[in-house]
Each structure stands twice: as structure tokens, then as C-alpha cells.
Amino acid sequence: MKGITKKFPGVLALDKASFNLRKGEVHALIGENGAGKSTLIKILSGAYQMDEGVIIINNEKVSIQNPGKAQELGISVIYQEFNLIPYLTVAENIFLGRESMKNGCLIDTKDIIDNSRKILDDLDLGLAPDKIVNELGVAKQQMVEVAKALSMNSRIIVMDEPTAALGDHEIEQLFKTIKELKKRGISIIYISHRIEELWEIADRVTVLRDGQYIATTDIKEINKDKLIKQMVGRDLTEQFPARKSAVGQEILRVDGLSQEGLLKNISFNLKKGEVLGFAGLVGSGRTELMRCIFGVDKYNDGKIFIDNKEVSINNPKAAIRQGIGFITEDRKSQGLILVRSIKENITITDLNQVIDNGFINYKKEQKLTEDFINKLKIKTPSIEQEVRYLSGGNQQKVVLAKWLLQKAKILIFDEPTRGIDVGAKKEVYNLINSLVQNGVGVIMVSSELPEVMGMSDRILIMSHGRITGELSAPEATQEKILNYATKE
After folding, report:
1. Is 462 in contact with 289 (CB distance < 8 Å)?
2. The CATH number of the domain where 55 resides is what?
3. What are the residue boundaries of the ABC transporter domain, all occurrences included (predicted)?
């Protein structure tokens, strides 16, 4: 890909960017949110048309007008949000739209299953072709996407944030599969915000910044600090910014909370001006606990106290009334209305603040939104911009703005920096510090141990639906946390 330029209204997404890929290599494509990675991949996959530039595959100039043409050329993309039909089988998903027919009008189910089994067994994926997809975990669904790409004889596979929702063991299995694909001469474009994993899996790395090509380097010839400097255009000092805040009185207490089959006798407290970290492996029950506290899910036993008063939280509305906000791990499906504007997403949680005499006061709504955009440094050409067009970091800031509008006194962050680049991560950390300095109590759930250790005053560790350990920030180490996280 040479000299690729793509313009959107008010935005130059790509400015003469370039990228090359060798046979049988894993080539990492990285950059901050908004750097142009997604746009470049959408052009390669036929979802977008470039305004300028050329694409050359096997020394021939090609025109990729649509996703079908990309597939013909052997290009497949595995997006972070999988393109699978949940109620169909693994085999039906692998050959969807390309089913074998018998007697000219009936789908040959046996042939589809046999061909799927050959692909799955060939890669040792441990998947049954007749299994329903929604019965599979995220890691297995990802393998269905890989099998689907192989069924189309893809020679170039793009993986967008493939490890974002995976645990350590699942990442190990994914890397094993990627290495097998390399042996077969298949080329992988690997997009990730988890910089540290690149040295385990990538051969080369290309950096984009502000839509422009910055550099391509052999991964063995560059270290993390230099790579981050290429990404952000500056040195990132003090990854987890220091915080001066006085931890105050108890603001939240959970006593003996249990949920059948998931949570067992959970008790803890949170203080004003404190960041309380929750660590644990995938499936440990952290998210389930937060959903109970916010009233999304019911709990069978236990009590919740806010400011030393027992409260009944049967639904999110009740939680919001008690001053609790929840920034979920899946901001796109649970935290935002993607096809609505920044303005609408921020004010929808409390329209009373912008309504006069039964009608929305648009000047008031505009000023309120602009205040949050300035305060949180949300990068956007307009308050009318639909949030689906924002980068991950800016989407997260819009979700946070909703709860700041509500004046929440307890904020739950579930995977606050998932899918966010290193520069935007630090902005989120600064915002969290600002909140606790103003007396807000923050619960942070994160699968990134350095993040939990760097941002928390105390850390609670969960395993199998129970709290198995508590550590103060100074005494916490990754080894101690993992020891508690693997307790039965």
C-alpha cells in the first residue's frame, strides 16, 4: 500500500500512508487511537475507497472496490467484534454464503461439517463443527473466524486487537495458532494496543501517527520506549501519574453479597478519594460483582450500604439515584448509542439539566456538552459528531462525561483502558486522579496488572467468585496477585 490518502468531512484520516507485508510474516500495525490504522485496514478490505494511492498484491496493482473483491484476492479481516451468527453452528458460520448444495437446492450439511472438521483438525483448534457458536467463549469464537478465513483460502489475515478480551492461557493458544499460520506462508497484519506482546509474536512493526506513516522496524531492533515515542511523538514519562489525595470516610460497604453459582459471600468497603482495584483471572467474578452493585443483575443474599445507610439496588435507576456510575467493559454496546451525537450521548442520562418548560434548551445543551469536551479533552470536529466515529479513548471520555453530569460519587470502571492507546491511557489515569482528588470513590476492575498496581490504593483479588486476598499498593507485586488469583 503506497501513498494512501483518505478524507472524511473535516478529517484527514490518512495522509499518504504506506504499508508493506511479506509472505509468512506477522507485521504489527500500531498507533494511537485516531492514527489511521482502522481506516487503512478498511481500505485494504474494501469497506472504504481511498482518495489517493495504490495497492499492489504479488507485484500487481489491484483495485479493491468492495469486501467481495478483497476476499477474491485472499484478504480476510478478523475484527474485534466478530462477524458470526450466534445461533448457527461452527460449520455453518465457516461456510456461510458458500454452502455446498445437493440436488441443486438443498444445503449439503454433511459436506459442510466434513470440510469444517478438516480445517479445524488441521490447525488442532479443538472445536466441534456442530457446536452452536453462542455456546463458545470469546477465544473459541475467534478460532471460528480464523477457520472461516482459511476456508476462503486467505493468504493475508488482519487481526484487530485479537488479545483484548483473552486471558493469558487463551493468548498463548492464539499465538500458537498464529505461528502455525506463518509456517503455511500466511501473512498476518496484527493490530494491538498491548505493546509488550509484540516482541512475542511480531516480526516487524509499522507505526502510524495522525494519519501519516512514521516508520517500519524489525521488532528485535527497537525497544518499548522508542516504539511509544514513535507512536505519540514524545516521551511518555511516568506512565501512572502520581496522585496526592487524602482517603476519607467509608462511602460504600458490601456485606456478604452472594449470587447463585457466581458470587460467594463478598464483603469489602470503599472510601472517599480512594481507588480500589479489583484483580483476577477471566471468569473470576469481578464483572458479575460490579453488575450486582449497579443493579444490572440480582443478588441472592447480602447487603449494600452507602454512607452507612443500607440501600436497596434492584435496577440501574436505583443505583444512579444513590450516586453510582458504571463505565462498563463494553462501551460500544453497553455505554454508548453509537449512531447518536456526542451531545445526545452525554445529556441523555439527565435531560432535566437541559430542559426548560418541557422543551430541550439547545443552547444550554450545547454549552454543557462543550464544557465537557474542553474539560475531558475530547477530540472531535463537532458536538454533533456521531460517537461511532470517535477513537476508543474519546468514546471512553464520552461515557465518563455522562456520569460526571450525574455528579456520581461512586464510579465503577470495568477495564477502563481496554482498546485504548498508550497516550489516551494516561489521559484516563489523569481523569481518575482528578475524580478521587475531588472525593469520588473509584472502583477499578482491570486485567492489566501493572495498571491495577500503578493506580490503586488497595487491591482486592478474586478467584472463583470469592475475594481471596487484599494487598495495599506498596506491598503488591504481580507474583502475589497471581498467587491469590489462582486460589481455589
Report:
1. yes
2. 3.40.50.300
3. 1-235, 246-488
